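Fold this sequence, please.
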Amino acid sequence: MRTISTIMAGAAALAVGAGLGPAADRAGAMCSFNGLNGHWRGNDGGIYSVHESGSRVWWTAMSGDGGRSWQHRFQGTRTGDIVTGRWADFHGPMGRGTLTVRVRDIMHMTRVANTGSGFGGQRWWRSCDDVVGHPG
């Protein structure tokens, strides 16, 4: 009779053998993502609550100090791996503009282009911990 640890070891060996590596194995085994929905972190220190329905993508975001420095909203459209839309602060410096983001994979996004003033984020990521209990 196989034990759970034997089954898990076999699954890990298959993932590594397929070229997925340990990170992909952990993500696939532990995460349950529903599109872009969930909590993302940005290199600007912000926390982004992202929602996706069909081609529509929107989020609310706040600075890492609990939103005291800035808060903004974004609304856009996803076509393939590109999300384009408009953002506007509703607390803080009151910037606004357009934003284009590339979805690199289910756990990473990068800024491609932006207009306007004050948008600091260039990279976003999430971990399995950000999805558990917050599936979107």
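The chain has three helices and eight strands. The CA atoms of residues 48 and 61 lie 4 Å apart.
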